[in-house]
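Handoff note, outgoing to incoming analyst
You'll be picking up this chain. Sequence as last confirmed:
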Amino acid sequence: MKLLICTQEYPPRYSSGIGNVVYNITERLQAMGVDCTICSPTGPDIILGSSRLIKMFGILGLLYYWHQVHRYFREIVDDYDAVWLNNPFLIRGNPFSKSLITIHGTYYGMSAHRIYSWYYHLLYKISSRFEKCSWHKIRLDDAKFTAVSNQVATELEERGIDHKSITYIPNGVNIERFKRTKDKKRLRDKFNLPEDDIVVLSLGRLTEQKEPYRLIKVFSEVEKKLKDKKTITIVIAGVGELLSGAEKLAQQRGLHNVRFLGYVDHEQDAPDLYACADYFAVSSKYEGGEPILTLAEAMASGLPCIVSDIPHFKLIEDSNCGIIADFTNPEKASEKITAYLMNDNSSHSQNARQYAIDNVSWERITKRYFEKLKKLKKATPKQDSN
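Most recent structure output, in case you need it:
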């Protein structure tokens, strides 16, 4: 099978969630014998658009990239058996007859949930119009959608995409790299963390969407409630526009045992950081993936999870590997978390690891994408009436 993959980002340069998913799926498809051609602003095979424009201007940079994709491929689409498009913005129409379209998150969802300040809310509302226009320019008879969460699938339906065309395929995780360890002491020495403390890890971008301030407010109360019972260290790893504000808030709230690690190399250090922690915490008010990549990595590492009360995280309670807390209410959330930390949660650790093995290993996820692509390859495209 000859497969064209179009993505706005691809490792090692300028990559976050989308790039991580595409890279891991592509690597495994190639191992299965699929001939993959990657088209992104940084290649590696075909370079179109500009990652610099995407970083600086967001939706305008994305529109430019997808405009370049449309112009470049409209005459040579028959060179490929199938095409995998990731969050496309094909305003002029889809030049590809056999397309698998993966939606990792929507501007519509971010706008509807009012994640950011009024300026970004307005920007995302405008962007969601371009998004909807792009989706409805796609010939649905010749394309299928996948969504990385049930929430994203619902958002697609709410924007007029037939639910029969949508399949939920979650994000994946490398279960060989992210796993439990018996050598926590050595790894804690690596990050200069106390050997005997309860270590709660939060890893991710420090942005309004992730709500790091809520996390700090809640765990400052947890620390007080655990005083003279257990010692807890909160590890906050990641960078973003709220990093300095989070550091100041932790100081103001009297959160003593907190470590801000800043940027953590995903390849070299992230697996060890998960492995030396006892719990994983995330306080986001909206997410795209189900599970999000960091949560999948934490579960594969056998970490019981403490998560905010949003639909994407319902799987934590359903799989019995953690708790859901209302981070909008620090007192209520801190009481629930404190009680949880006082218990033996080893069964939740085992359940988390097993869930990752059974549901979100990259091998399982790749097979699901491969089956979708094989069906597209076999399908006979309908002729465009225009």
